[in-house]
Amino acid sequence: MSTPRLEFDLKKIHHNASALGARLERLGISVTGVTKACMGQPRYANILLSSGVSSLGDSRIENIETMRRGGVSAPITLIRSPMLSQVDRVVRHADTSFNSEQDVISALSAAALKAKCRHSVVLMVELGDLREGILPRDLLAVARQTLDCPNIDLRGIGTNLACRSGVAPDSKNMGELSRLADMLDTACGPVTSVVSGGNSSNLKWALSGADIGRINNLRLGEAILLGLDPLDRSPIAGLHTDAITLVAEVIESKLKPSQAWGVIAQTAFDDQVETRDCGTINQSILAIGQQDIDPDGLTPPHGIEILGASSDHLMLNTGKHSVAVGSEIEFQLNYSALLRAMTSPFVAKKYMKPIKETSMRSDFLITSLAS
């Protein structure tokens, strides 16, 4: 079997998506399943849809086009502001897009007119994390301009937290988003059918018993894939945290000194590595490196230590045991390592899928999926 590779247990991913969707549905919150970590893979998209998510979301129009070519007809939202150079593609393939610039909304309007279609927008509001968003004081003016744009439907508002600055969703900022939705509806009529509170980082707040106000949608990716709370990477009760595994192959295994010798300068990645002298160790090298993964985002098996990585090599201390060349070693990944591995053309993707995908049966087989 090809290495290195990512192995996806779609049954566990389906369980995670279903469990989260059921918990949020009881609160009146729908789930947009985010597909960007899997690069819009139609098979993954269909697993999310079979779990009950109401729609799909992706930050790249290329991934959305991949899903459309793969036969995915469900509603899809572009969850990053469209590039002006891509508005024609956006209105053709995405039902909705998140927006924070009036010039982009105007360009989407012109593209929708040209394509003889309608396109929906959600206005993103800045609530402190300082990524994207319209300042609250400017929201009403932008909403009114949007309502005047031909072939554009204003669906609602949203925000994003905990991505750039780590600002956690709480009752204060979520209450502000609800207040802004009420303000727009009072001033413009019922224009906020969607109030998208954020991403997987919102789960702790949403499930805490707090008053959710007008929040009726969350975009979930990391929590479904990894079963972790992005605020502190703690496991979410009842979810699988091992649905995705990275497998890499040993290409060298030798007894080596644990401490480098010679004049020490910067490494290939501008680091200055401090090594400790542990005597002679069993060092193994795997055929994967910084080009393919974030080594800081890997969790090795018990008893194995990651020593470092270059572009194409991952060095391990395998402890008391020598590992044979050709052996495979499995790792768990965080979100950063997963994103980089999915993007690498040198990492194969293997999906554990039901024999009949639509039935979600428990008997599984391994199938390969081209990158």
UniProtKB/TrEMBL annotation:
Task: List UniProt keywords, sorted A-Z.
Answer: Isomerase, Pyridoxal phosphate
Per its UniProt record, what Pfam families does this chain match?
Ala_racemase_N
Which cofactors?
A: pyridoxal 5'-phosphate
Matching Gene3D superfamilies, A to Z? Alanine racemase
Which segments constitute the Alanine racemase N-terminal domain? 9-224
List the CDD domains hit by this protein, alphabetically: PLPDE_III_AR_like_1 (cd06815)
Q: What is this protein called?
A: Alanine/ornithine racemase family PLP-dependent enzyme
Organism listed in the record: Roseibium algae
